[in-house]
Amino acid sequence: MYYNGVYHLFYQYNPKGSVWGNIVWAHSVSKDLINWIHLEPAIYPSKKFDKYGAWSGSATILPNNKPVILYTGVVDSHDSQVQNYAIPANLSDPFLRKWIKPNNNPLIVPDNSINKTKFRDPTTAWMGQDGLWRIVIGSMRNHRGMALLYRSRDFIKWAKAQHPLHSSPHTGNWECPDFFPVSLKNTNGLDASYRGKNVKHVLKNSLDVNRFEYYTIGMYDTKKDRYIPDNNSIDGSKGLRLDYGNFYASKSFYDPMKNRRIVWGWTNESDVLPDDEIKKGWAGIQAIPRKVWLDPSGKQLIQWPIEELETLRKQKIQLNNKKLSKGEMFEVKGISASQADVEVSFSFSSLNKAEQFDPNWADFYAQDVCAIKGSTIQGGLGPFGLATLASKNLEEYTPVFFRVFKAQKNYKVLMCSDARRSTMRQNEAMYKPSFAGYVDVDLVDMKKLSLRSLIDNSVVESFGAGGKTCITSRVYPILAIHNNAHLFVFNNGSETITIETLNAWSMDVPKMH
């Protein structure tokens, strides 16, 4: 949340070790979303309404400029869940270090129609025209994912609506729901309670069943208190993802300082066993905060790293109009390849060499197609892109690349972030997927594709076509580390690719206190 000039991040944290358990609400603050001060935990299990866990939730700024946290408390060893609130002990403390959990908790207890072990993660509240506050809580009934709706006049007494805000069969438990308006007119963010014209709404859920984040775009019927996804917006695992990689449990908030909405996700470890985390002494990172807005088509969201990230840019190198023929690769030198920000714009003169899209792949996830058509498989138009966190002789590398296919009616653009060759560590249990998503672009008029990758030692966070498709990979090289990491640009397709512009920066380390 943003409050009185300070950004607050509350996050699930185990103060006793780098494995899951003993979860508290850790608390950090920042003036710029880049440099952070770590404070004492804001909430930790201490009362009967959260004795077995203080799980996720959200912050809301009430009209009298008073922040309030809603969070899920676990009340017994069977993971039975209730919803609680916490308020700052001292509003004059600029960092809001101490939080109080009033004794009239819990505010919401699940009724008999609700699975009490699948009842969590209340959203930021919004106010309707009737003066009632509303929140959504993630749940499930008979494998039907549900966004349960509750209303309140005073933020204390909450009543469940007769029907959920939205639900969908065969999607499993919905975690960390997020519901917010987006403008049809521009890239500005909107407060959750915005009731003006020219808006659509977004409902995002983290699907417990496969650990990916999905969202739909649609209409919020305020009279019926129902959310209706657009016809082309699909619930569940065939729908749109915020990120096609390692990215989960995100929350968004409205930033009134810069009139934007920011979404921020968590990316967990993908190495082998808890022993790895214990040895490292830490586990899990926050991805880079992203500004989020509605694409002009109205069909999907656009995400882009917040502009403040650019303050960490140091040495810069630039390339223009470099051609890459089939099988060519060159190294980007002059920056620190283990910690870099790279923006590149590719162009090509023709779509004629695009490979045919195999009709048998129609029901495949993009990730499965990338597993078949990796960066070393020669193609027509692509594969071309970046080989990140690469060792000198390419024993290790994580390629982030495009491949263009000719489908029945149009062209399909596949974007991959493929971790299969990311490390020489030999362990079959290691999670090294060929993450991928399709990019919704029209290449007929504009034969160009852009890519931005944020590279940071064990993470590669990539944004295709200006943020239309985002993929985050966690990788654990043993050769391509620190000064031994390299960055290459490659083309493995028969169509010659032009690098119109490439800008790359070494990135500094934020200040942490």
Automatic annotation (TrEMBL):
Family stated for the protein in its record: Belongs to the glycosyl hydrolase 32 family.
A Pfam short name: Glyco_hydro_32N
UniProt record, GO biological process: carbohydrate metabolic process
PANTHER family (UniProt xref): BETA-FRUCTOFURANOSIDASE, INSOLUBLE ISOENZYME CWINV1-RELATED
InterPro entries in alphabetical order: ConA-like_dom_sf (IPR013320), Fructan_Metab_Enzymes (IPR050551), Glyco_hydro_32 (IPR001362), Glyco_hydro_32_C (IPR013189), Glyco_hydro_32_N (IPR013148), Glyco_hydro_beta-prop_sf (IPR023296)
SMART domains noted in UniProt: Glyco_32 (SM00640)
Organism of derivation: Solanum tuberosum (Potato)
Name of the protein this chain belongs to: Invertase
Record Gene3D superfamilies: Exo-inulinase, domain 1, Glycosyl hydrolase domain, family 43
Single GO term (MF): hydrolase activity, hydrolyzing O-glycosyl compounds
Keyword Plastid belongs to the record: no
Keywords tagged on the record: Glycosidase, Hydrolase
Domain Glycosyl hydrolase family 32 N-terminal: 1-305
Stretches assigned to the Glycosyl hydrolase family 32 C-terminal domain: 308-506
Subunit text: May be present in two forms, a 70 kDa monomer and a heterodimer of the 30 kDa and 38 kDa subunits. The ratio of the levels of the two forms within cells appears to be regulated developmentally.
